[in-house]
């Protein structure tokens, strides 16, 4: 079993699909299927349970993927260190960004970084903050943006924005003309929230539970503009960070400060504490920390 095969295996396990893994790796689906089958024959175990069109790792698969991730991470560390020795101005960084964060904070910073280091390439992966945190922790991504404090162990971070959530309602809502609203007053409303792989989803449900109710969630999405649109047509209410609220220009919604409790939204850039960081990644962290603290202090 070589590094290439391990990378194929990790990608299939991550995406739970041979087709999606093939697309992500820019190879054909038969190639990846043949590689996995060869690994199963070589190791004498079944790596994936195939349930209809879905696939899940077997117990043996879980063990092998775990070890493969460690080996691939070590190999990447080795090649990154050699690359640094060969040329300090080149490199490639994989950055995880929650969809609602990217457009608000990063185009300008990435543009300025590219001007300074034109030979460093950046690949962006859009996912909920929970998934980004997990991918940075397991080494799939070098760096990412997550909601602080993080849950996974072994991560370092620096914060770059701290805001509060605001209530977004339709203008005909009973609370639409209030100057502020308490969370407990929303116990009978229908909620439109981000999906479960977004940290914000868990934070909102936990905050509601602390004031004594389970929110009735009628719809979940990964797109803040779609969530806002559903509120605008009167399907429910939502809670969104101040940054997103500033982006909403739709007159069909009202945005109201939320009190008692205030739900904080603190974002940070995260990376693995115990992993070798390439020159490109170290420089991106340094540059982003400097630029974001200037722009959002």
TrEMBL record:
One Pfam short name: HTH_1
Ranges where the HTH lysR-type domain occurs: 1-58
Keywords noted in UniProt: DNA-binding, Transcription, Transcription regulation
Keyword Membrane: no
Gene Ontology CC annotations of this record: cytosol
Gene Ontology MF, one: DNA binding
Cited CDD domains: PBP2_CidR
UniProt family annotation: Belongs to the LysR transcriptional regulatory family.
NCBIfam families in alphabetical order: trans_act_CidR
Protein name: DNA-binding transcriptional LysR family regulator
Source organism of the structure: Fontibacillus solani
């Amino acid at each position: 079993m070589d590094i290439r095969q391990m990378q194929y295996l990790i990608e299939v396990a991550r995406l739970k699909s041979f087709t999606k893994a093939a697309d992500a790796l820019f190879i054909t689906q038969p190639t990846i299927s043949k590689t996995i089958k060869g690994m199963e024959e070589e190791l004498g175990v079944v790596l994936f349970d195939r349930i209809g069109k879905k696939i899940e790792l077997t117990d043996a698969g879980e063990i092998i993927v775990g070890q493969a991730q460690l080996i691939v991470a070590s190999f990447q560390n080795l090649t990154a260190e050699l690359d640094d020795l060969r040329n300090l101005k080149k490199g490639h960084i994989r950055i995880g960004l929650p969809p609602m964060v990217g457009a608000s904070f990063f185009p300008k910073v990435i543009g300025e970084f590219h001007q300074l280091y034109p030979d460093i390439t950046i690949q962006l992966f859009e996912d909920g903050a929970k998934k980004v945190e997990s991918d940075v922790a397991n080494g799939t991504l070098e760096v990412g943006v997550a909601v602080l404090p993080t849950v996974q162990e072994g991560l370092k971070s620096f914060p770059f924005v701290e805001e509060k959530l605001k209530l977004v309602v339709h203008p005909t809502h009973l609370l639409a003309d209030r100057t502020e609203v308490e969370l407990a007053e929303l116990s009978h409303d229908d909620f439109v929230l981000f999906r479960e792989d977004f940290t914000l989803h868990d934070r909102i449900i936990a905050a509601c539970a602390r004031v004594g109710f389970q929110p009735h969630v009628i719809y979940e999405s990964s797109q803040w503009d779609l969530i806002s649109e559903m509120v605008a047509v009167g399907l429910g209410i939502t809670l969104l960070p101040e940054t997103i609220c500033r982006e909403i220009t739709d007159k069909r919604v009202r945005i109201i400060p939320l009190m008692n409790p205030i739900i904080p939204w603190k974002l940070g850039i995260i990376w693995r504490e115990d992993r070798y960081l390439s020159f490109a990644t170290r420089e991106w962290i340094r540059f982003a920390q400097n630029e974001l603290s200037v722009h959002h202090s």
